[in-house]
Write a structure and sequence with these properties.
This protein is mostly beta strands and 279 residues long. The protein is built from no helices and 18 strands. Helices cover 0% and strands 46% of the residues. Strands 3, 4, 5, 10, 11, 12, 13 and 14 form an eight-stranded mixed β-sheet that branches. The protein is elongated and about 95 Å long.
């Protein structure tokens, strides 16, 4: 737990305590993962094997980080949640009180998340023959969860809206849709019988080439427009502009990978409507 005191002698006022990262030692469930696969193989020319397969996995009771001392909310007639409101001057969002006003953010890990992984894998491997060996491997996969983006060790942040963890369900932070790997080895056929011939014998050339698609990311507003006071103010996500869809956001250009005009800041006191890691 951390806290800071503000002092104006002779009086010191202690601000509320907070916790950036913790874990409940009375954890009711054990995280586990199930895996399954199916492979078909065919041999060609006596030394080359082609493999085509499917790999699946599911993670259950995975840990995610969530604020346990939530900011309370109000709802309007449409059921939209508001965690704060603008002050009279219109210069800042005043947050609603927390469940326990004696504490600020209290982030803690709990085993409530899940994940799924599905992949098609294909490979072609030539065993070493006539001084040559090579391999080609390709994977087309998709990983979905609501936990990897909440781990600071993986570059993520705690659950954005602690009352609704499903809004953080999306592409895994480490999701790489396509992976291609090439490898080769060639034994150089240099031989000799002269003195010192060992210097030119036994040499090999090898190489590995890898290409993969980029990892997903999530656009954020950059400040706490919600008033919910998340531990990472930059974790608040924007709204998608009316008429735009997730499919027409990405431009794929060096000058701008995605169209920023497709997003808008959400209303004060609210979270944006975007889910996690969608680009």
């Amino acid at each position: 737990m951390t806290g800071v005191q503000t002092c104006a002698l002779p009086i010191c006022l202690a601000v509320t305590q907070s916790q950036a990262n913790g874990i409940n030692y009375d954890t009711p469930a054990t995280p586990y993962q199930m895996q399954w696969n199916l492979n078909l193989q065919r041999e060609f020319m006596g030394n080359t094997i082609f493999t085509l397969g499917y790999v699946g996995a599911r993670g259950v009771h995975l840990f995610y980080q969530r604020d346990q001392n939530l900011v309370t909310y109000t709802t309007n007639a449409q059921g939209q949640r508001f965690y704060g409101k603008l002050n009279a001057a219109g210069t800042a969002v005043v947050a609603n009180p927390r469940i326990n006003p004696n504490f600020a953010v209290v982030n803690s890990a709990e085993p409530m998340a899940n994940s799924s992984y599905n992949a098609m894998v294909a490979s072609l491997n030539r065993r070493f023959n006539r001084n040559v060996q090579y391999g080609v491997s390709y994977t087309w996969s998709h990983c979905i969860d609501n936990s990897s983006s909440t781990s600071g060790l993986e570059g993520g942040q705690p659950i954005m809206e602690a009352y609704n963890a499903s809004r953080d369900r999306g592409n895994c932070l480490f999701d790489r849709r396509q992976n291609l790997t090439l490898n080769s080895l060639v034994a150089l056929p240099f031989k000799g019988t002269f003195v010192g011939h060992q210097i030119i014998e036994g040499w090999q050339l090898s190489g590995i080439f890898t290409a993969r698609t980029g990892q997903p990311f999530t656009p954020t507003v950059g400040f706490d427009v919600s008033g919910a006071q998340p531990s990472y103010a930059g974790s608040v996500r924007p709204d998608l502009v009316a008429g735009r869809t997730a499919d027409d956001i990405t431009k794929g250009l060096i000058s701008g990978y995605f169209d920023r005009t497709a997003f808008a800041a959400p209303a004060f006191g609210t979270f944006g409507d975007r889910k996690s890691t969608r680009l």
